[in-house]
Design brief:
By secondary structure, the protein is α/β, with parallel strands linked by helices. The chain has helices at 41-48, 76-89, 102-113, 140-148, 153-156, 162-166, 212-217, 220-224, 241-244, 246-257; strands spanning 5-11, 14-21, 26-30, 53-57, 95-100, 118-124, 196-201, 228-234. Strands 1-2-4-3-5-6-7-8 form an eight-stranded mixed β-sheet, with helices on both faces. The radius of gyration is 18 Å and the shape is globular.
Length: 260
Amino acid sequence: MEGIVHRMVEVNGINMHVAEKGDGPVVLFLHGFPDLWYSWRHQILSLSSRGYRAVAPDLRGYGDTDAPSSISSYMCFHLVGDIVALIDSLGVDQVFLVAHDWGAILGWYLCLFRPERVRVYVCLSVPFRPFLGRNPKVRTVDAFHALYGDDYYICRFQEPGKMEAELARAGTSYVMKNWELTSPWNGVGISDKIPVRFITGDLDLVYTSAGMKEYIHGGGFKKDVPCLEEVFVQKGVAHFNNQEAAEDTSNLIYDFISKF
């Protein structure tokens, strides 16, 4: 697409496919489930035309990036390690981070574990909540069952082979992060040195989930992310705002990162 370059990079023991375009400060885009680098195509073209090097990998297990066979190879630590190694390969110390959906959760982990690698963070759809409400007496998946029922996609992904069989026609695989391993960071917020802008759609099912609006607008989000500077709610937009409202989302990203 219009001069986007594709290459493979060795990172953290795997080969990662990267799409990029432009020169200048690096804007790193992390896609969600079940997307690819392609979900950022509009933003890659927009940001690269404004003086940035736009970089969008296929995350571990997706697209042309290696997909280790063991389910234990997809913990958040592996994923963060992949991104840190990718940043190193780009020859920069910090990136302007932009992420959506599961990629947004990975973005929050990167801010938590390696805040010095993130200059600013523009988060789409999923706010910082990985450690809120953690109950050591209740398994994470059991809590999802109680909240959303057996048909919730995370709950349906728990039996190895079952969901793969259902999705075989589309060739889609799954990944699931395990919160138990991140218990040492329970109650820890995001560094006050990382400016954050949050963008979501008013029709996004994440935004309309029980208690989410209260958390985002009622002070809880700001408490956990002290450098949260702005929250934008796009009218008439659902979950995939980087594609549904591509121009507006690109402009909101540029408007924020250009200040730093």
